[in-house]
Design a protein that fits this description.
The chain is an alpha/beta fold and 217 residues long. The chain has a single domain, classed as Rossmann fold, CATH 3.40.50.150. The protein is 31% helix and 29% strand. The chain is built from seven helices and nine strands, in the order ααβαβαββαβαββαββ. The strands form two sheets. The chain has a seven-stranded mixed β-sheet with strand order 3-2-1-4-5-9-8. Strands 6-7 form a two-stranded antiparallel ribbon. β2, α4 and β3 form a beta-alpha-beta unit. The radius of gyration is 17 Å and the shape is globular. 34% of the residues are buried.
Length: 217
C-alpha cells in the first residue's frame, strides 16, 4: 500500500529560509502582454518576496504575496518592508471571489506533491481570480536523467505517484508531466507554454516550464 505524503511541510521551508535560493526567471515581456500594471497580482508561495520586488520595480504596484512559512515571510518583510507579504494557513485563501487580475505560482506546485492539495489550490486560485484573470506558473517538468529516474521510481513505489521524490534533507517534492498540468488547468485557456532551463534550490540544472493561461468565463 502506498504511504501517504506528508501534507504539511512548513518546518522544512522555515529551515530553508535564507538558505535556499530560488531563481526561476520572471518573463516581464510575456506578463506585460497579458496583465496591465494597474491589476492586482497575487504571488502564492512568495517566499522572501523576490518576485514582489521585481514586479514593484517594473511598475506592478498592486501586489500581495502569501506564504505558509513564517520565516520566509519574515525575511521578505525585512528585505522589502513596503511590500504586502503575509503568512497564510494552508487551505482556503483569505480573499473574496474575484479579487485578483493575476496569480503567480512560481516553484510552488513542486512543493505540494499531493494531488488533493494541488487540486484544492487551483480551485482557490480560480475562485480569487477575476473573470478573464491570468495564471502564470513556473515550475519543473519530469527530468530525463538517471538520478531523477531513480528518484521517481523510488517515490512512485513508496507514494504511488510518478514524479514524486524525496530529498535526504527532509522534504517531498514533485515534478510534472504535461498530462498533470492539463488536469490542473482545466477551465483555463493556455496562451503561452515555454520550456526553460532553470537552476533548482540545490543548484542543480533542470528543465522547467513557464505557463501563462487565462481563466475562461
Amino acid at each position: 500500500m502506498a504511504e501517504p505524503i506528508a501534507r504539511d511541510q512548513r518546518p522544512y521551508w522555515n529551515r530553508a529560509a535564507g538558505v535556499k535560493e530560488f531563481t526561476h526567471p520572471f518573463n516581464s515581456e510575456l506578463f506585460e502582454k497579458h496583465v496591465p500594471r494597474d491589476v492586482r497580482v497575487l504571488d502564492l508561495g512568495c517566499g522572501t518576496g523576490r518576485l514582489g520586488g521585481v514586479l514593484h520595480d517594473q511598475g506592478w504596484r498592486h501586489y500581495a504575496g502569501a506564504d505558509s512559512a513564517e520565516e520566509m515571510v519574515a525575511l521578505g518583510l525585512a528585505d522589502h518592508p513596503a511590500l504586502d507579504l503575509r503568512v497564510i494557513e494552508p487551505g482556503p485563501l483569505p480573499w473574496p471571489d474575484g479579487t485578483f487580475g493575476a496569480v503567480l505560482l512560481f516553484s510552488l506546485l513542486t512543493c505540494i506533491p499531493d494531488d488533493r492539495d494541488q487540486d484544492a489550490l487551483l480551485a482557490e486560485v480560480w475562485r480569487v481570480l477575476k473573470a478573464d484573470g491570468v495564471l502564470y506558473v513556473s515550475d519543473l517538468l519530469i527530468q530525463d536523467d538517471d538520478r531523477n529516474r531513480e528518484r521517481y521510481a523510488a517515490g512512485e513505489k513508496r507514494h504511488g505517484t510518478f514524479g514524486v521524490f524525496e530529498l535526504p534533507e527532509g522534504v517531498v517534492l514533485r515534478h510534472f508531466t504535461r498530462e498533470r498540468l492539463d488536469e490542473l488547468t482545466l477551465g483555463f485557456e493556455w496562451h503561452a507554454f515555454e520550456r526553460v532551463d532553470v537552476v533548482t534550490m540545490n543548484a542543480n540544472p533542470a528543465q522547467g516550464f513557464q505557463l501563462l493561461a487565462r481563466k475562461r468565463p
